Amino acid sequence: MTKRRVPRPAELAEILRPKPIVLNPTDRRLAAAHTIGDLRMIARKRSPRAVFDYTDGAAELEDSLRRARQAFRSVQFHPHVLRGVSDVDTSTDILGVRSELPFAFAPTGFTRLMNHEGERAVARVAGREGIPFALSTMGTTSIEDVAAAAPDTRKWFQLYVWRDRAAGKELMDRAWAAGFDTLLLTVDTPVGGARMRDVRNGLSIPPALTLRTVLDGATRPAWWFNLLTTEPLTFASLTSWGGTVAELINKMFDPTLNFDTLDWVRESWPGKLVVKGIQNAEDAADVVEHGAEAVLVSNHGGRQLDRAPTPLELLPSVLDAVNGDAEVWLDTGILSGGDIVAAIAMGADACLVGRAFLYGLMAGGERGVQRTVDILRGELVRTMQLLGVRRIADLRPSHATLR
């Protein structure tokens, strides 16, 4: 027989500890997000379907994105024990400048479509965290306004080469004058990819008030209220546009982009040059010969050519081709701090994070972006400690392999 007793009030008080009441709804939402996946689910609930799908989706059958994420899932870590990891240094040098974390915020288009706080919010978080922020040619906040909003942030500018070369040269001049020290030249977009979610949703920029979007917006009134009561949603580098994303790319971007174009950009830009969108080792070696200080192994987040090479799997051959003559960065499929550790261990000098911070932005504006960094940093530090590694520079290929 089990002997029963009545618990004393003091005993109950020890175990009955309700969580503090959080009155602010944004803080309450973000406090419940413990992973980037959690932020994604919050973003999905709070954003119109077309907006969420623009961020979340990829090209055609989305195999490129799926494979990129699966590659990170297939990583096997090889920890060392008894290494003393009470203090972990997550800092590294990116193109000769210290970054407090081994990643930067990737350039993303239409950022104020996700949340009205947009690029300014992302750049401010980057500055507080001591990491770089990249502004897209397709951004919705001007070069000068980003510089004013985040004067202490290390800022990069991402360039698409337009048919109008004079317009591209003007953007480079403005970026350099505003204190942007690095140019990311995207070379994987001669034409727009077939992003089928956008096609099916009829996404246009700015969003059109069709019957479908009105009905969808009725369940997301906060998003529509913020869109309609803040500065109009336009491309900061274009006068106006009223079509779809694919139509814009095919009308404005230059499909004749070649190595002569790269030479022109190298001559026109006085700062550091990164070529973004490298998808084979031969191209990596070639762009370095033409003056790139870093190459970004990327398939554009799976948003251009479906079934393109998976960046993490391509990384070793690119490293061999570059042979230390330039830095090698990686993006696509990164959704955790462990993913970043794996990429760095396998040889990448840095990573770029895009969708992860956009989920945070959609979930809670600037505070959501901050939550993204907090999550990634916590996962990164914990993974390094469990691997027995105290410094980013100490990560080696022996720490992470693809199964």
Write the layout of secondary structure elements.
Elements: H1 9-15, H2 25-31, H3 36-46, H4 49-56, H5 63-73, E1 75-77, E2 92-94, E3 97-99, E4 103-105, H6 111-114, H7 118-129, E5 133-135, H8 143-149, E6 155-159, H9 165-177, E7 182-186, H10 196-201, H11 211-217, H12 221-229, H13 245-252, H14 259-268, E8 272-278, H15 281-289, E9 294-297, H16 311-322, E10 327-330, H17 337-345, E11 350-353, H18 355-387, E12 400-402
Parallel strand pairs: 4-11, 5-6, 6-7, 7-8, 8-9, 9-10, 10-11
Antiparallel strand pairs: 1-12, 2-3
Task: Give structural attributes.
403 residues; 45% helix; alpha/beta; two-stranded antiparallel sheet; 12 strands; globular
Strand sequence of the main sheet, in spatial order? Answer: 4-11-10-9-8-7-6-5
Q: Helix segment count?
A: 18
What integer is the average pLDDT?
92
From the N-terminal CA to the C-terminal CA, the straight-line distance is 53 Å
Low-confidence stretches: none
Q: Radius of gyration in whole Å, from Cα? A: 22 Å
Q: The biggest beta sheet, please?
A: 8 strands, parallel
Coarse structural class: alpha/beta
Strand content: 5-15%
Q: How much helical structure, as a percent, in the residues?
A: 40-55%
What oligomeric assembly is this protein in?
A: single chain
Task: Describe this structure as you would to a colleague.
There is one protein chain. The protein is α/β, with parallel strands linked by helices and 403 residues long. The chain has helices at residues 9-15, 25-31, 36-46, 49-56, 63-73, 111-114, 118-129, 143-149, 165-177, 196-201, 211-217, 221-229, 245-252, 259-268, 281-289, 311-322, 337-345, 355-387, and strands at residues 75-77, 92-94, 97-99, 103-105, 133-135, 155-159, 182-186, 272-278, 294-297, 327-330, 350-353, 400-402. It has an eight-stranded parallel beta sheet with strand order 4-11-10-9-8-7-6-5. It has a two-stranded antiparallel sheet with strand order 1-12. Strands 2-3 form a two-stranded antiparallel ribbon. β8, α15 and β9 form a beta-alpha-beta unit. The longest helix has 33 residues, at 355-387. The chain is globular, with a radius of gyration of 22 Å.
